[in-house]
Amino acid sequence: MNKPFYVTTPIYYPTGTPHIGSAYTTFIADTLARYHRQQGSETFFLTGTDEHGNNIAKKAEEQGISPQEYVDNYADIFQNTWKNLNISNDFFIRTTQPEHEKFAAEVIQKAYENGDIYPDSYSGWYCESCEAYYEETDLVDGKCPNHPTKSPIYTTETNYFFKWSKYQDWLLELYEQNPEFIQPTKWANWVKEFVSSGLKDIPVTRANVSWGVKVPFAPEQTIYVWYDALPNYLSIFEYPQFKSQNFGEKFWPQAVHVVGKDILKFHAILWPAMLKSAGYSLPKTILVNGFFTVNGQKIGKSNGNAVDPVELSEKYGVDAVRYALLSEFKVGNDGDFSFDRLDVKYQSDLSANWGNLHNRIIVLAEKFGVEISQSAEGKGILVGDSVVANEISKAETEYHRAFNNFEIFEAIQSVGNLASFANKYVADKRPWELETKEAAVIIADLLVIIKKIAELYVPILPETAQKALESIQNRQKIILFPKID
Ligand code: MSP
Questions:
Q1: pTM (two decimals)
Q2: Ligand 1 centre distance from Cα of residue 257 (Å)
Q3: Tens of pLDDT along 260-287?
């Protein structure tokens, strides 16, 4: 039996509808969840919304509604978006749910009892969009390093601090001993450098934010949004439906947090220290994704390129949008997304290299009356031509290697290469010109290949791969990628 698998996305701020950037991270997590489910692992996939803090309270005020009403609306919008994008999350967590709030309060309480929280006053440059303080040297021309249009405000307040600095050596030791903890490796190096340059204690409560979880040992203050949000990955196991099944014991040690590079610091440096301080064990992996631009520009309403992933998928289909994002660049790198690239991928990788191949083989099989061989239906691959057997096994080996290293881009390439091989193979062998008996051997091999391609595509192009598998089963032609007007 394979090990259980637990994958999470960041819990998104419900301050706008999900854009293609949040969809990208969510597609990565969904692809990993689907891969592990297909491999027979018990899998738990969590996403949700991060609903506290001044940003939210302000937005609610602008709309003249209560923060709770505001987050209720957006939590619905997020859930509908993920449903429309065929995201297979097992639960949608919201930080305003009572089970979560109770747990978040426990995490800070335990750190307090362990002597890691103390009162002090703090001054720094506060970016409201990040809900974080910056040093003056972090600012870029007086603007937030993550929000180039926002000017952080110099703020002084008295609140409770977390002894982050105390964990500096322990963290460095953790990264040293667990080289797989932060992936891809280049991000582990970034984190090590950041920690080596020195950690300062940070305020983890807020005196002037009322829309938040009350600090148990200082109820006039609320818990800092990040100290409240990060515990969602664990608080989920306190929900009665999961607690009763001991999901925490099963899934927590296998946790993979998929996060954008913008929030790596919180996940790879703050979260482990918070867990250690409160006496919890650590997640297995922080998987970092880079950012992509759209048509060469940063995504943003002001650039007029805040692409709605649902609108896009209405035109191309969810699978094609997901494919276009995941196959463009390696997880961890930055890249660009454009409509032209989406068109090209739709026509060449999907429609020509796979869709047409698939139909061509189904039609040949029908014409020559070839069935997919019995043993190919089972786990062993029975093919007539050793060249074909080799290509299949090469693709499978690379595919599983890649998935086990979270290399989705490389996994996709291995399937694409198998499809390219099959296209060349059928063109070279020209089975339609051969005697029935001879042709049948070649077509049977090709049937095994298209079945394998569909199986390998299940985590990546779930809906289309399912259709492809059914069409093989029924030996019926199917247009996997219809013409786009
Ligand atoms: N609420 C926090 C996360 C708390 S997790 C305990 C937060 N939310 S967010 O809504 O701002 O989401 C940030 C995440 O969205 C990024 O880390 C990244 O995963 C994703 N992305 C947002 N824009 C993106 C791109 N342009 N490109 C790729 N990913 C993008 O931070």
A1: 0.94
A2: 12
A3: 999 999 999 999 999 999 999 999 999 9
